[in-house]
Amino acid sequence: MKLDVNALGTFYRMAREGAGLAAGRLTHMTDVETRAGVTKLNFMRGREIRRDFEDSTAKVGVRVELTGAIEGYSVIVFERENALRIVESLLEESATDTDSDLSDEAGELDEFNEMTRSAATEVGNIMNNGFIDGWADVLETVIDVSTPEFVEGRSADTFFDEVEKAPAGDDLALLFQSQIETVETQVGFSHYLFPERESMAALLDRLRTSGGIEYDKLDGFDRMAERGAEEVAKTATTLTGIDTSVEIRRLNFVSLETIPEQVPDERLVGVAFEFDGVPSGYLLFLFDEESANEIVDAMVPTGAGDTAETDGFGQMGQSAIQELGNIMASGFLDGWANVLDTTIDHSTPEFIHDIGAAAVDPVVIQLGEDQEFAFVFDTVIVAAGREFDCEVYAIPDESDLERALNDLDVDRIEEEPTTAEFQNVTGTGTDGGAGTGADTDT
Amino acid sequence: MKTYGTEPGAPTSVQVGISELTVSDGDDTLKSYGLGSCVAIALYDPETEIGGLAHTMLPDGDEAENSDRKPGKYADTAIRALLRRMVERGASYTTVEAKLAGGSDMFEFDSFGDGVGKRNIDAAKAELEKLGVPLVASDLGGDRGRTVEFTPETGTLLVKSSDENGDHGVTEL
């Protein structure tokens, strides 16, 4: 199975088109204004999909099996509470026309009964069909849909384990994810498509306009990025003494405009780098203000200067964050360079303290001159019991990435250790620019 | 995207996302959050109180394949699309005025050349000049992010930005 940017771009348009249609139908049905939120193509391992899913809230889902141009499963997932609210409003509406008993029943919903379950299934099914019609439009083909199945539970097993084609723990699956939000109330729904591998391969073949990349190399690249993420967490722990770990890690394929939309709409503290080699691109570490303060406190000895400043990050604070960013960048890119058997240099760190989207859009604009979509290596690092939330965005240049992937020797990944360098960083880190390479292991 | 509030006739607030453009009238407010090197282009006709806002990210749509599909992504095509939609709604081409905000350059990367924000500013100004639309006010460049809010009725463009200490400054254009 081979993929290229054109084929993935078509998939992306399918996902967005489908989300738009599904949102429209939900509005039509419930009279609640909705919109399609962020749409992503994710490459995720089965175990990460499950971990991502299990945030301990009860969920309900409506699942259909697809045959025809796409084979696999399409699942709409609501938080259980939200599903009940929607069903409630639907039943109240119909009850005013017909039977007041219904509205009494709907008014105090906390369990699904036969009627509410069938109403929820209907809602989910109409949304599923919205997605599927959107894909069929883009692909100009026919997709057949089975009867919907209602699923309720807390764990991913309930939702995915019966799905024959759901990825096993270690399988890298291509996942279509969309959010639909109601405008006033911030109720979100997730949509997952698990395409069957063979049908996906056939579709990719049809949509590809270039030689493309072997899918298995992407799998290798993902494993390599995993190492990079772990390296960042390890580096952060060493430098700050705060015990950190990798919480979320995804390889996304998105349209460039989606990236700033994904960043929290608040003031963030960040460090940005450009990196150069095969691949080249940009790397950003973004912290919320509280986490940044915590880091400054951990790294700068108390009483050593202007860290007591309330809001701003003085010279010492900036330097500390830049230094941390610099070493984390070396760790991350070392992970890549080692596996690719190449050298990736990175620039000196650029400090930023601004509204999240504003920190990301310059990079998106620069890449946007030559590409419409980007692979984003999206990582969240957290610390148990303390404020340390760091979002890492690595956005490589598309053509360089394709080249890097094609050169990738998948077998090397298991052999190569990744090692960050600590000894060559001195002073405040603002002098930065440490090259990272495969041959510089300590 | 136009959304409708529950009270008919009440002013609505519409978010104009990156690469989007929206035309409206009266006291509706059009908002774009977190502009870094992106440029917000606000056009309005003071006589009919019809106006529009675009959140553009790149300078040159004529060179790009997808500018038909996404006119709001590029400064040049966004200005033309805004003008066209405003005139379709009843605005008069000859009285339309423009305000611009954004185009910061926060990073000094080698690959950025003269600056990605500057390229967007130059393109927007050039297109306005070409079409004879006067630029009446602007808040451009620098190294800070901005959030803008535009009201077609008054033609007011509010620009919020924050300095290093987190103090918010509001400029009214």
UniProtKB/TrEMBL annotation, chain A:
Q: Which keywords does the record carry? A: Chemotaxis, Hydrolase
- Cite the residue spans of the region called Disordered: 417-442
Give a yes or no for keyword Hydrolase in this entry: yes
Which Gene Ontology MF annotations are present? hydrolase activity
Q: Some GO term, biological process aspect, for this entry: which one?
A: chemotaxis
* Domain of life according to the entry: Archaea
Q: Does the keyword section mention tRNA processing?
A: no
SUPFAM superfamilies of this UniProt entry? CheC-like (SSF103039)
Which Pfam families is this protein grouped with? Answer: CheC
Annotated CheC-like protein domain ranges read 115-151, 316-352
Protein name, entry field: CheC, inhibitor of MCP methylation
Species source reads: Natrialba asiatica (strain ATCC 700177 / DSM 12278 / JCM 9576 / FERM P-10747 / NBRC 102637 / 172P1)
From TrEMBL, chain B:
- Gene Ontology biological-process entries: chemotaxis
This protein's record includes keyword Hydrolase: yes
Q: Pfam families this protein is in?
A: CheD (PF03975)
User: So what does this thing catalyse?
Assistant: L-glutaminyl-[protein] + H2O = L-glutamyl-[protein] + NH4(+)
Tell me the InterPro entries matching this sequence.
CheD-like_sf, Chemorcpt_Glu_NH3ase_CheD, Cytotoxic_necrot_fac-like_cat
Keyword annotations: Chemotaxis, Hydrolase
- E.C. numbers: 3.5.1.44
Q: MF terms per GO, please?
A: protein-glutamine glutaminase activity
Specify the domain of life of the species encoding this protein.
Archaea
The record describes the protein's role as: Probably deamidates glutamine residues to glutamate on methyl-accepting chemotaxis receptors (MCPs), playing an important role in chemotaxis.
- Matching PANTHER family, A to Z? CHEMORECEPTOR GLUTAMINE DEAMIDASE CHED-RELATED
Which HAMAP family has this protein been placed in? CheD
Family per UniProt?
Belongs to the CheD family.
Q: What is this protein called?
A: Probable chemoreceptor glutamine deamidase CheD
